[in-house]
Amino acid sequence: MKGRWRYTRLPSQVDDALSAEEGEEEEEETAPAPAPVSAPAPEDPVGPQLAEASQVLGASEIRQLSLHLPPRVTGHPWSLAFCTSRDGFSLRSLYRQMEGHSGPVLLVLRDQDGQMFGAFSSSAIRLSKSFYGTGETFLFSFSPQLKVFKWTGSNSFFVKGDLDSLMMGSGSGQFGLWLDGDLYHGGSHPCATFNNEVLARQEQFCIKELEAWVLS
C-alpha cells in the first residue's frame, strides 16, 4: 500500500504542478491577445504595404493618399507595375506593363520642378477608343499639402489612352491631366470632370519620374 500511495501521490503532485504551469502559460498567452487586434483599428498608422520603395512618394504622402482610396482597395498591397527609371519613358511600355492587370491603378509623378501629383484610376490603364472608368477616379496634387479632386458628376470623361497620349478628365477641350507618348511632356488644366486646379505649378510640365502602382 505504501508503494501504491507513493506511486499515486507523486504523479498527482506532478500533474498539479504541470496543470498550474499550463494555466499560467495560458493566462500569459491569452491575456495580451486582444491588444494587437484592437490597437491598429483606430490608428492604422502603418498605411498600405508597398512591394518596393517609391521614388516619387514618401511615407507621409502614401499615408495621406491611402485615406482617399475606395474602401475596396483598403488592405491591398501596392505593386509597382511600371516606373520610368526601370521601364523607360514610353507610353507604349506603360500599356505593355499594364497587360494582365485589371485592378485599380495609382499614377504618381514628379515633374522637373519637383511638384508631385497624379491620378487614381478605377481600372488598369489601357489603350481605348473612348473614355472608360468610374466615379471612383480622381486627380490629386501635393502643393505642398495634399489636394484631392473627386468626380463632380458632370460628365464621365475619366480615362482615355491612345498611342500618342493619355488623358484623364475632360471638358471644353481641356484635360485635367494629359501625358504625351514619350511620357516626358504633359499638361494640366481645370476640367469639368473633377473641377480641379492645375496640378503642376504650370499648365505645361516635363516629367522627371512616373510610377504606376496596381492596388490589388
Question: What descriptors fit this protein?
Answer:
216 residues, alpha+beta, 6 helices, 10 strands, globular
Oligomer: single chain
Derived structural class: alpha+beta
Question: Helix tally?
Answer: 6
Radius of gyration: 27 Å
Order of helices and strands: HHHHEHHEEEEEEEEE
Question: Mean pLDDT across all residues, rounded?
Answer: 84
In short:
This protein is of the alpha+beta class and 216 residues long. Helices cover 27% and strands 27% of the residues.
Topology (elements, then pairings):
Elements: H1 2-30, H2 34-38, H3 40-43, H4 59-66, E1 79-83, H5 84-87, H6 91-98, E2 105-111, E3 116-121, E4 138-142, E5 146-149, E6 159-161, E7 165-171, E8 174-180, E9 185-187, E10 204-214
Antiparallel strand pairs: 1-10, 2-3, 2-10, 3-4, 4-5, 6-7, 7-8, 8-9, 9-10
If you had to describe this structure to a student in words, what would you say it looks like?
The structure is a single chain. By secondary structure, this protein is an alpha+beta fold. The protein has one domain (57-213). It is built from 6 helices and 10 strands. It has helices spanning 2-30, 34-38, 40-43, 59-66, 84-87, 91-98; strands spanning 79-83, 105-111, 116-121, 138-142, 146-149, 159-161, 165-171, 174-180, 185-187, 204-214. Strands 1, 2, 3, 4, 5, 6, 7, 8, 9 and 10 form a 10-stranded antiparallel sheet that branches. A hairpin with a 3-residue loop joins strand 4 and strand 5 (146-149). The longest helix has 29 residues, at 2-30. It is globular, with a radius of gyration of 27 Å. The relative contact order is 0.16. The model is unreliable at 1-45 (pLDDT under 50). InterPro entries: TLDc_dom. Residues 55-216 form the TLDc domain. Residues 33-45 have a biased composition (Pro residues).
